[in-house]
Write a structure and sequence with these properties.
The protein is mostly beta strands. It is 6% helix and 59% strand. The strands form six sheets. It has a 22-stranded antiparallel beta barrel. The longest helix has 13 residues. The radius of gyration is 25 Å and the shape is globular. It starts with a helix and ends with a strand.
Length: 644
């Protein structure tokens, strides 16, 4: 691993000696982003440090879903198995319930092990992704204490477009997708579909060999979306969207579990004047789980989360800055097998927020924001604030500030009462408090020519973190149980550094390189809490690519990805009596991928990839281990029919 990094860094430093021309716009510093401030800003001018995964990054990676993409592109992000082989995300010390995932600015209903169902977030219709690390609750409310991931979907950019694509890999993995777009007059429509299928495969032949699971269970998914844009006036835009998602697991052939999502919405954007912008939106999202009994041909639903949400946003531009005000109202309904006797609960939430971006002069910008949230279930409210700054001088930018974060307890965490893994009951706690956090951050960015360097540090103090206590005995009911509780305090400290560049060579080819490093340290001051798998202290992501256009009809792209995560030791609880605590040692690992893409007339491409080229396989398959068995050959094709 050390030798490979040394070679990469040597090449990173040596390439400028042979370059011919600088590529001034290669680093996407003029990319327009909206997530950090809810106003349209160039990435280089935003006071909130934002990472963008571009269309080119997504196409180059050939990722199927967001988990594949983020692990490949970002240091400090890891997706690991949780109970029942659902997936849990950790992003720089914050788990999935503290990272808010949006699609075109809209929240998602449902959860699996308190995380979003990541399989429903396919990359087939994604234009780009904006990522904010650190507390963003002042603008986005609960669940944004650890960051925001905003997935921006595509709009048709040609009179008509039709793409079909497919990929095949080991374990009979298949992926088939399509994207159809039409732009005519005032209307723009984009429709997409994606179907995936992968078989179950065994990773650990002998469960006595300290493996936490034996099989990686397969699944089949279907994802259909449509997005219609109508522009009746030059200053008015109306967007409607609808979607359907289906996933069926292969854990139990006779009673497979099923997951469905139905969503739809309508959004209006009105540029009232050159200084005023108004946005109104309604969004519906329903996420269901069920068990299908093949013998009786019955599909029995035991979980349904339905969210209806209305929101508004208004921007007014002054000579010295931008004022943003808005509010949200949501009806949240949850029916779950995890409630006593399959009960259902509902609550209403509302919020108002305001933010002002003050451009003091050409060097300084200050930003201040505040948000008030209300939850009807227990009639509680919370006020969150943010204060930040940006300083620019020529090629140097300094960003920093304070941001409050919070996460309200979910209906599941308050009212659960169910038997987990056949031995342990989980109880909710109606007296749970909201998690409250304080995030302090400071970052610097320097750009010169085709080089870009960033360095940032953040320190988080999390109070009343929601967790579960160690197993106890319910004397009255004669059962073992754990219960959701608030633990006193958690500290998360992190450092992240990236270096990237792109060079135009004399022969017309382009070479790009990026390396990112993330350090995360977590400390929980409560030994009575049930421990979870924390973030690995060190992680490194590397990417190098070479692109060459040989003639008018043929071009090639060669890309190398590398990912290293350090070892980790943490305390875990045995999930069966006598519920002993023991230490888990997760080994560090490194996975590298080589990918070759051949493009013909910008209409047809063939992608051949070797993932895990050094044939890494874990000694023991733990929930924090990658599920690989070794080298994986992947072959994909993509055809833009309208370009022929």
């Amino acid at each position: 691993m050390t030798r490979l990094l040394f070679i990469f860094l040597t090449l990173f430093a040596a390439v400028p000696c042979i370059m011919a021309d600088e590529v001034a716009d290669s680093l996407q510093l003029d990319q327009v982003v909206v997530t950090g401030t809810r106003t349209r800003k160039l990435m280089k001018d935003t006071p909130i440090q934002t990472r963008v995964i571009t269309t080119e990054d997504i196409q180059r990676s050939d990722a199927t879903d967001i988990a594949d993409l983020l692990q490949q592109e970002l240091p400090g992000v890891e997706f690991a198995y949780a109970m029942n082989q659902q997936v849990n995300m950790n992003m720089s010390g914050f788990s999935g319930q503290n990272v808010l995932i949006l699609i075109d600015g809209e929240r998602l209903a449902g959860e699996t092990m308190e995380n979003t169902d990541f399989t429903r977030l396919n990359m087939n219709d994604v234009d780009h992704i904006e990522i904010i690390k650190g507390a963003a609750s002042a603008l986005y409310g609960s669940n944004a204490a650890g960051g925001v991931i905003n997935i921006i979907t595509k709009e048709a950019n040609r009179p008509w477009m039709l793409n079909v694509n497919a990929r095949w890999a080991d374990h009979k993995e298949q992926r088939y997708g399509g994207l159809w777009g039409l732009r005519k007059g005032q209307f723009n429509n984009t429709a997409s579909f994606q179907f995936t299928d992968i078989d179950t495969y065994m990773v650990c032949a002998d469960m006595k060999d300290d493996c936490e699971y034996r099989n990686v269970y397969g699944r089949r998914t279907l994802n259909i979306k449509d997005k219609l844009v109508w522009r009746p006036l030059d200053n008015l835009k109306v967007t409607g969207h609808a979607g359907y998602f289906f996933r069926q697991g292969k854990e139990s052939p006779e009673i497979p579990n099923r997951y469905r999502d139905f969503c739809g919405g309508l959004k209006g954007e009105w540029n009232i004047s050159s200084a005023d912008y108004l946005e109104l939106a309604y969004n519906f999202d329903q996420y269901d789980k069920s068990d299908y009994y093949k013998e009786y041909k019955k599909d029995i639903r035991d979980y349904s989360n339905v969210q209806n949400r209305v929101r508004t946003l208004f921007n007014h531009s002054f000579a010295s800055g931008i004022l943003t005000v808005g509010g949200d109202y949501m009806r949240d309904y949850l029916l779950s097998y995890q409630f006593d006797n399959g009960r259902s609960y509902r609550q209403y939430t509302g919020d108002v927020f305001a933010q002002y971006d003050w451009n003091i002069n050409k060097y300084w910008e200050l930003i201040g924001a505040g948000r008030w949230d209300y939850f009807s279930d227990d009639h509680t409210s919370h006020l969150t604030g943010k204060l930040g700054f940006r300083y620019n001088y020529e090629n140097f930018t300094l960003r920093g500030g304070y941001a409050g974060g919070f996460r309200a307890p979910t209906l599941k965490e308050k009212y659960s009462q169910f038997l987990m893994v056949g031995t342990l009951y989980v109880y909710g706690n109606e007296n749970l408090k909201s998690e409250k956090s304080h995030n302090f951050n400071l970052g610097a960015e320097y750009t010169t020519g085709q080089y870009n360097f960033t360095l940032s540090a953040n320190y988080n103090i999390v109070n009343d973190k929601i967790s579960t206590h160690l197993p106890q005995i319910d004397v009255e009911k004669q059962r073992n149980y754990i219960q959701y509780i608030n633990i006193s305090r958690m500290h998360v400290f992190g450092i992240e550094a990236t270096a990237q560049s792109q060079w135009q060579m004399g022969d017309g080819s382009v070479i790009g390189a990026r390396i990112g490093y993330c350090y995360t340290h977590e400390q929980v001051r409560d030994g009575s809490a049930n421990q979870y798998a924390p973030a690995r202290p060190h992680s490194i992501n590397v990417r190098a690519d070479w692109d060459k256009k040989w003639n008018s009809w043929y071009s090639t792209n060669l890309c190398i990805y590398g990912r290293y995560l350090s070892s980790l030791t943490y305390t875990k609880m045995q999930m069966a009596p006598p519920f002993l605590l023991y230490d888990i040692d997760c080994e560090g690992y490194s996975i590298w991928k080589v990918q070759l893409t051949n493009r013909f007339r910008d209409a047809f491409s063939v992608n051949i990839a070797l993932d895990n080229i050094f044939n890494y396989a874990p000694k023991h398959y733990l929930y924090n281990s990658p599920t690989t068995l070794g080298i994986n050959l992947m072959v994909g094709v993509s055809i833009d029919i309208d370009r022929f």
